[in-house]
Amino acid sequence: MAKYIVRRILTAIPMVLLITILCFALMHFAPYNAIDAMTTPKMSPETIELIKAKYGYDKPLFIQYLRWLNGILNGNFGYSIVTKQSIAGDLAVRIPNTIKLVLPAYATAYILAIILGLLAGSHKNKAADKVIDGISSIAIAVPSFWFSMLLIFILGYKLKLLPIVGMHSVGKEASMADFLRHFIMPFITLTFTFLPANVKFVRSSTVTQFSEDYVLVQRAFGASRGEIMFKHVCKNVLLPIITRLGMALQLLVTGAIITETVFGWPGVGPYFIKAIQGMDYPIVMIILVLSSTLVILGNLLSDILYCITDPRIREMG
Amino acid sequence: MMKRNEGNKKKSRSVRVDSVLLSLKHDKAAVISLILLGLIILFALIAPFLPVEPNATNIANRLQPPSAGHWFGTDEVGRDYFARVIYGGRVSLMVGFLAMLTSLTIGVAVGTIAGFCGGMVDMVLMRIVDVLYSIPWMILVTVVSIFLRPGLKSIILVIGFFTWMEIARLVRAETLSLKEREFILYAEFSGVGIWKIIISHIIPSVFPTIIVSATTSMANAIMTESSLSFLGVGIQQPMSSWGSLLQNAQGTMQNTFYMALIPGLLIIITIFAFNKLGNLLRVFVEPKIMNDEKE
Lengths: 317, 295
Fold this sequence. Notes:
heterodimer, A: 317 residues, mainly alpha, 15 helices, 77% helix, B: 295 residues, MetI-like fold, 11 helices, globular
């Protein structure tokens, strides 16, 4: 098993490097770059050369790349072209805000999905299944931003129950109750977004397990439905679900871009969209590198989890 | 001999049709959504011949609620919202369709070439797939969209060029197993060129997979387009899609909620219907899979 894990880690490293190269190339070939942002057309060519030399833009490309990569590895993500703020500093505020929203929403969706999926899968084609599966099929087709508009209209405008924008009211930054009031709508939206695909996944793997021979054998020996369900089926269904956790890792940074933008939640979402609109390449590229690294790490994690939890794979490795 | 073969063919076709009809019988939602989708597509196609004008403004008549004269009301500069929704659907469906064609073409080409050639070619192509796959789609698509001037053409290209990876993987896996089958081995042995084998043997054999992926791909493309347009990096004024209509509706939502409601419902119906269509096609190409046991 250790050998397998080491091999997996070794294949993940070149992937991350490839992504940083891709990012750097995109940044380099962008129609508008950091030099254009620092210089004005009125400056003399000599001044521009001086500025280039000062920031290292006169060096060969691969040296620039190595310096940039070295910076990222040391936590120096560079500076925004537009606001000149340190990107690492901005992200240190933004990412925790996103996590505060995504983590509870994903956890809720995950637990609900297991319960609903098992319920639907074990009662295939009965009323409970039809309702759960039907609603998930519709929910998959609902754009998350439209769902949040619905919530804003009903809970925000009509009933006037909840604030529609931001994370805190002005002057109430320390109040937990105020935070929760802002939290409810984006939380519901995100839970609703994460839920249906997970329910469908759990349901279809439950249905598959129930059609396996071992269930038939258990039935023949007179085991009760509940016994089969909790002693055998559950175990086999939960294995692949645990590995889905790894794949959800990147959601902690980029899982709520649309929802955060709609509700003006001060997380990574609005920061990213603003950077896109303002052509703020350094920010965009750092988020690209960060989220892709998390995807690769997440896949690695899910393979390792699979390896640890599933004895069949453990033996093979 | 010929006759028996034909008889078998006919029989297998009727089994396919029967299983599709059977699953339709159990799924009223699919029937309704497919009929609605048919209507939406029909309206989108005949829009230029309808007596509606999506760009005619009438300030005196702004923000009117739905009525007999304006079925879906009017927007903030008095344009007929019914016309705008129909023309929006035209754009959304067209983006979905063309983006799907693009991504299908790339996916099938990469998948068959990687699977059939193997070796270095396969390695390189699949690493590209892995890398693109590791970037969250939302980030990938938005990043690329800033390199192109926002608009209809670039959104089709962006979605088409960056959503083919899943199809490529599916097609590659099938090509790998097809490669070992006798008819391909024989074709190879008798000196038929790679391109001819790929085009006349492999692609027809993976066609069922391609068709099923096409519906999913279409649904995803429509969803991606509306999200991007909603965020303001997709379709730009004066052209509008369902997503950009929703973005526009956000501002006046408090008083004119119908403007936010209608395009959203149409997106839901369209995506739902395409997903159902995908399930039906899956039943059609593999009658054994009734319902979704082997998803």
